[in-house]
Amino acid sequence: MGKYFGTDGIRGIVGETLTEEFVARLGRAAGSVLASRGGRPTVVIGRDTRGSGEALEAALIEGLCGAGADAIRAGVLPTPAVAHVAAALGVEAGAVISASHNPHEWNGIKFFDGAGFKLSDDLEAAIERALDDPPAGGAAGRLQQDGKSVALYEAHLQGLSVGLSGLRVVVDCANGAASDVAPRVLETLGATVMTLHAEPDGANINAGCGALHPEVMAQAAAVHGADLGLALDGDADRVIFADEQGRVVDGDQVLAICAEHLKGAGALAGDVVVGTQLSNLGLEIALRRMGAELARARVGDRYVLEEMQRRSAVLGGEPSGHTIFLNHATTGDGLLTAIMVTNVMRRRGEPLSALAGLMERVPQTCMNVAVGRAPDLQADPVIARAIESATAALNGEGRLVVRPSGTEPVVRVMVEGLDPALVQQVAEGIAQTIEARCA
């Protein structure tokens, strides 16, 4: 991570660490870096439904145009839609104003290059240098109102589906960027759709709903007799499912389902799936049984993508619901993932519960410990000893991952093993130690 950029762009609390003045400077820095590569760059801009989005959008456009870049205002649009549209329109970059799964008081900016991939570390570093050493202004760029981004994205999704006729689907839009797009796409494909949390008011994004609270969607799926449920997050780059019995199906299970299908079709390149350090051991076991390998990347979808490219893999993702189908998209896409999973359901003629049974989860506990500052986990002797003792307690029959988050002021603790009581005890012990040391 850089000075400003985390694992998923720049995020902060609006009015505190993220201000309109800062975003305008960021736009000027990004515009100047893009312009330095030759020509007059064009950037397509989308945002989610946070109340701060319009003001930050205006500030970003001011900065970009002040640096001589042209801007296309696409309005409310899912993050993966901006990535797709940037490539489809042939522009130099895309920008999304969103803090993804964070609460409404947060916001952020993430950039994509002209091919729809998140910016390289080198480009982000160049933008950070320009932020600290502001460039001189040039000829003002132009602002264009977008008229086709949503249609381009919807056509892309519809072209990948075998159809949803006869399926009953519950979709929780998290009062976020897919509140209009998701129900419309699913209905156009033939599904009967029950929509939850698709009335954004600027402050209710992710609030008690969406991918962070999949139990809400899962209960609705069971009560209404749906074939499946979908819970998106605020910018719709992730999705968590529920089967027809109302049981949650997470990102690891989705990878197992899609890997088994691709393997059977001879399309699982290299017989490898990329997960992360947090991917459940059950996924590794399931892939091994089908003759495939789990390659673990650092946590964060950008690192999953990097490992996918390094291994020439076509499928990768995270338990949280970021799933990347590299033959069809350059980033995680909740709606695309839903289409890929329903395609398997239709082709196999099996309910989601049967497909999810391909993987048996090993007991796992994940905890977030709020911290005022990110601790140096290795330099703090008390925390280091706690981790060492916890590892010894697992006795080679489990895994432990402790890491600062790249998107929030928390330390994430993940423990998994064969004994669920021991897993919980170990996780709580480490969490309490970190909390005490960082109080």
Structure description:
This protein is of the alpha/beta class and 439 residues long. It has helices at 20-35, 53-66, 79-89, 121-132, 149-158, 181-188, 214-223, 251-264, 281-289, 301-311, 334-348, 352-356, 381-394, 420-437; strands at residues 10-13, 42-47, 70-76, 93-97, 106-113, 143-145, 168-172, 192-196, 228-232, 239-242, 248-249, 272-276, 293-297, 315-317, 323-325, 364-370, 398-404, 410-417. Helix 2 (53-66) links the parallel strand 2 (42-47) and strand 3. Helix 3 (79-89) packs across helix 5 (149-158). The radius of gyration is 22 Å and the shape is globular. The chain starts with 9 loop residues before the first strand and ends with a helix.
Helices and strands in order:
Blueprint: E1 10-13, H1 20-35, E2 42-47, H2 53-66, E3 70-76, H3 79-89, E4 93-97, E5 106-113, H4 121-132, E6 143-145, H5 149-158, E7 168-172, H6 181-188, E8 192-196, H7 214-223, E9 228-232, E10 239-242, E11 248-249, H8 251-264, E12 272-276, H9 281-289, E13 293-297, H10 301-311, E14 315-317, E15 323-325, H11 334-348, H12 352-356, E16 364-370, H13 381-394, E17 398-404, E18 410-417, H14 420-437
Parallel strand pairs: 2-3, 2-4, 3-6, 7-8, 7-9, 12-13
Antiparallel strand pairs: 1-5, 4-5, 9-10, 10-11, 14-15, 16-18, 17-18
Helix pairs in contact: 1-2, 1-4, 3-5, 8-11, 13-14
CATH class placement of the largest domain: Alpha Beta
Helix percentage range? 25-40%
CATH topology of the largest domain: Alpha-D-Glucose-1,6-Bisphosphate, Chain A, domain 3
Q: Cα-atom Rg, whole angstroms?
A: 22 Å
Number of beta strands: 18
Q: For the largest beta sheet, what order do the strands appear in spatially?
A: 1-5-4-2-3-6
What's the rounded overall pLDDT mean? 93
CATH architecture assignment name of the largest domain? 3-Layer(aba) Sandwich
**What amount of the residues lies in strands?**
15-25%
How many structural domains are formed by the residues? 4
Described by strand count, sense and barrel closure, the largest sheet is: 6 strands, mixed
User: What is the CATH superfamily label of the largest domain?
Assistant: Alpha-D-Glucose-1,6-Bisphosphate, subunit A, domain 3
> Strand pairing plus helix content: what structural class?
alpha/beta
Helical stretch count?
Answer: 14
C-alpha end-to-end distance: 24 Å
Low-pLDDT sequence parts:
none
